[in-house]
Design brief:
single chain; mainly alpha; MetI-like fold; 2 domains; 78% helix; BPD_transp_1_N; nickel transport; Nickel import system permease protein NikB; Opp2B; transmembrane helix
């Protein structure tokens, strides 16, 4: 087990280096000149002299490999530059906005877990039953309706027609209901379908038959054995979606005017704020790496056979 954990932790290094390489290469692949974008945001008339000065200040006149090494050095020191629009450190801008995104992401994830686990579990236990039909309908609708359409539908019914909930902004728990439900519905569809399929497959495994022959109670078999195995694919999905949610729920934040990091990233794209865009790409990669690592470790605790499988494959 220890060797497996060390291997997973070390696998973070090449992914991090690749993500840093991509963020450095963005400057060279993008048609936008960072010096011109900075001067445009600062409302300064660009001249050849000023452009040369800013390119030198940003290190754009250095060879690519030197820029790459400087980027790694800055990342290690948590120096991501300053936003072109606000002239504030990018880290400070993100720290100011990320709590709103975390609040929205965790609330939607909690709703998805609380709904999809019982729904997927009981629909997998009794195929073609009433619960199974309901879960399949929810999965179909949740996977079919685009997020922005669902958001506007919820606003239309609950805010415009019924006047029950606020349309946009942040402040009270009522502001959190519609955007979190909008984010949770696609997750519920995915997790319910995954858990239903996993439970159905686990019930066909020999260990279930052996447990029944030994006289174990059905409740003990389902919750101590079947559920423990069936939850693994769902945990993998949680890791992927957690990274996606924490790096900015872009569409939902735009629909509900939620002042999170996703909306800030959209504004950075329109304003050609390259330091913010670079930080978003790198932070997204790091969060996906860490969430994947955490999920792998949790799965290892739930099912120690994973480390033994890895050992045999080597």
């Amino acid at each position: 087990m220890g060797r497996y954990i060390v291997k997973r932790v070390l696998s973070i290094i090449p992914v991090f280096l690749l993500a840093t390489l991509l963020t450095t290469g963005m400057i060279h692949l993008s048609p936008v000149d960072p010096a011109e974008a900075y001067l445009a945001a600062a409302h300064i008339q660009p001249t050849d002299e000023i452009l040369a000065q800013k390119r030198s200040e940003f290190g754009l006149d250095e060879p690519f490999y030197m820029q790459y090494l400087h980027t790694i050095e800055k990342v290690i020191h948590l120096d991501f530059g300053r936003s072109y629009m606000s002239n504030q450190p990018v880290v400070d801008e993100v720290i100011y906005r990320i709590p709103a995104t975390i609040q929205l992401a965790l609330t939607s994830l909690l709703i998805a877990i609380c709904v999809s686990i019982p729904l997927g579990f009981f629909s997998g236990m009794r195929k073609n039953g009433a619960v199974d039909h309901v879960s399949r309908l929810i999965s179909f609708l949740g996977a079919s309706i685009p997020t922005f359409v669902l958001g506007y539908l919820l606003i239309f019914f609950f805010s415009v027609k019924l006047d029950l909930l606020p349309v946009e902004g942040i402040g009270t728990w009522e502001h959190l209901i519609l955007p979190s439900i909008t984010l949770a519905v696609p997750l519920i569809a995915t997790y319910t379908r995954l858990l239903r399929s996993s439970v159905s497959e686990a019930l066909q495994e020999p260990f279930v038959q052996y447990a029944r022959i030994r006289g174990l109670k059905e409740q003990s078999i389902m919750f101590k054995h079947v559920f423990r195995i069936a939850i693994s694919p769902m945990l993998t999905g949680l890791g992927v979606n957690l990274g996606k949610l924490l790096t900015g729920t872009i569409i939902v934040e735009a629909v509900f005017s939620w002042p999170g990091f996703g909306r800030f990233f959209i504004e950075a794209i329109f304003n050609r704020d390259l330091p913010v865009i670079q930080f978003y790409v790198l932070m997204s990669a790091c969060i996906f790496i860490l969430s994947s690592l955490i999920v792998d470790l949790v799965q290892l605790i739930i099912d120690p056979r994973i480390s033994r499988k890895e050992g045999r494959q080597q």
